[in-house]
Amino acid sequence: MSYLKEGIRIRNMEVKNRLVLPPMETVSGSEKGEVKAETLDYYDKITGSGHIGLVIVEHTYISPEGKANGRQLSAAEDDKIEGLRKLADTIKNNGSRAFIQLSHAGSNGPEDVQGTECVGPSPVMNPRKKNNLTPRELTVDEIKALVVKFAQAARRAKEAGFDGVEIHSAHGYLLNQFLSPLTNKRTDQYGGDLSGRILFHRQVVQAVREKVGEDYPVFVRIGASDNMEGGTTIEDSREAARELVAAGVDVIDITGGMCGFMGPEFTGQGYFSGWSESIKQAVNVPVILTGGITEPEAAEGLLKEKKADLIGVGRAILKDHNWPKRAME
Ligand SMILES: Cc1cc2nc3c(=O)[nH]c(=O)nc-3n(C[C@H](O)[C@H](O)[C@H](O)COP(=O)(O)O)c2cc1C
Predict the structure, then answer these.
(1) Cα 266 to middle of ligand 1, angstroms
(2) Which positions of the chain have pLDDT values less than 70?
(3) Which of 116, 117, 256, 323 has its C-alpha lying 20 to 30 A from 143's C-alpha?
(4) What are phi and psi of 84, to 5 degrees?
């Protein structure tokens, strides 16, 4: 039997198989964050084989100061809904469930893009070193305003016809900065022990859930470990995942934290499978595993061994748009 071909139910949504196209930035939007023809063309081509169960559109900003690059897509304004609808339609017309990742770069943004601001939980430089800036510490009122912005962005995604949203808390971006003890040195309710460092996430999930309703799938992509001295550990993330599920999250998507999603230390197909297995044992919702998978047989093996419930394949599909068809056939 094929594990990859088996359908899965997420909340009240059926997904036809276990193959996920993970979020991968295209830097193809306009300077205002609009979806452009080249964005639609890219997503049409990469999903065109018709065999991807679930597609997660690249990180999309919830507020302009939190852009990660100058041509990132926006979910920060209502006038972006129309373009996002074309994007969701393109993916759904190719037979996939369409999700979109919502993000704020915090201190992991560019230095040279107008309107961005380097902010974070604490004035500590981001270990990912995408810039040379020390972030300004966010006030409690600003954090609360960002919670509302995540919820508004999720509402726009739903209005645009996306089947669900994914909240980005990985690869050194803002929510990851709150989770990580390397960047979160706060002494108020948003810092300290894990329950403090996960408070922002819980508030975001609850606000999103309130906005999109009970039936709408909400995922969180979590940097399951920073893999760095003094950073987030897998034990932290097991606890964080439990709290996120209690707050209303439907799927936990596993990747790296401050260490990013690839590197010389990560080798083999499914190099985060130890982490995804550990999180899977801690929660009762499906878990996505991505990283290094290039062969359908490896994906089958990881599902069979219960390392995860869904498998993300990024660069291999980027390289060969026919990969999903070959895998399913
Ligand atoms: C070009 C490119 C862009 C990426 N953009 C994002 C992104 O927007 N959001 C995200 O969470 N991960 C992003 N990633 C990480 C991928 O989702 C994935 O985790 C990573 O590529 C490892 O999986 P793979 O070995 O199957 O490619 C990106 C990766 C690549 C190669």
Answers:
(1) 14
(2) none
(3) 256
(4) -65, -30
